Automatic annotation (TrEMBL):
Biased composition (Basic and acidic residues): 184-196
Function text: Protein kinase that recognizes phosphorylation sites in which the surrounding peptides have an alpha-helical conformation. Regulates cardiac development and cardiomyocyte differentiation by negatively regulating Wnt/beta-catenin signaling.
Protein's UniProt name: Alpha-protein kinase 2
GO CC field: basolateral plasma membrane
Domain (Alpha-type protein kinase): residue spans on this chain: 1-153
EC number: 2.7.11.1
Annotated segments matching region Disordered: 156-196
Keyword terms of this UniProt record: Cell membrane, Disulfide bond, Immunoglobulin domain, Kinase, Membrane, Repeat, Serine/threonine-protein kinase, Transferase
Recorded name of the encoding gene: Alpk2
Family under the similarity heading: Belongs to the protein kinase superfamily. Alpha-type protein kinase family. ALPK subfamily.
GO MF annotations in UniProt: ATP binding; protein serine/threonine kinase activity
PROSITE patterns: ALPHA_KINASE (PS51158)
Compartments reported by the entry: Basolateral cell membrane
Length: 196
């Protein structure tokens, strides 16, 4: 937990250094640090400690990318969190995504990181690769993405889909493939349903 959040924090610092000087960008989301404390005399010898966030706690993004949250889409903090995700995605060539962004205002905590299966520069995240795929498919650029000069994911995603559909068009269709199934395989089978 500490490793993931503090790694995301380092990306957020680099993002802030690029975004804050831009005219009109304003405040940038900050991922607060988290510390691991060893308490040998306690029944639970390890604990994490971080700054207490006071105010309305908002989920600006969720791990699986499916939840539609108006505060995420319409608020300044939400838009800047989406831009941060896009920025990290682009900087790592689509290999890493900071996700599960949540907190109070511009202060974020308890984030997650998704990486490709092989990881990214020796780092493996704590979220499924499917979060990267969903982000690529669902992200909508906003004015902050444009201010940072980030490339639209729609164009990239559409190109990938076209390439895939072109490949499938070059494959022979099922009518040109001679099917040879054993006689048993062609007979109807009885299926037994069971509940697990």
């Amino acid at each position: 937990e500490c490793y993931v959040q503090n790694t995301a924090r380092e990306y957020a610092k680099i993002y802030a250094a690029e975004a804050e000087p831009l005219e009109g960008f304003g405040e940038v989301p900050e991922i607060i640090p988290i510390f691991l404390v060893h308490r040998p005399a306690n029944n639970i010898p390890y604990a994490t400690v971080e700054e207490e966030l006071v105010g309305e706690f908002v989920k600006y993004s969720v791990r699986d990318g499916k939840e539609v949250n108006f505060l995420r889409r319409d608020s300044e903090a939400g838009q800047k969190c989406c831009t941060f995700q896009h920025w990290v995605y682009e900087k790592t060539n689509g290999s890493l995504l900071v996700t599960d962004l949540q907190g109070v205002g511009m202060k974020l905590t308890d984030v997650g990181i998704a990486t490709l299966a092989k990881g990214y520069k020796g780092f493996k995240g704590n979220c499924s690769i499917s979060f990267i795929e969903q982000f690529r498919a669902l992200h909508q650029c906003n004015k902050y993405c444009e201010m940072l000069g980030l490339k639209s994911l729609r164009t990239t995603h559409q190109k990938q889909r076209k390439a895939t559909s072109m490949k499938s068009k070059n494959l022979p269709n099922s009518s040109t493939i001679k099917k040879t199934l054993p006689k048993k395989a062609r007979e109807p089978r009885d299926f037994i349903s069971s509940e697990h």
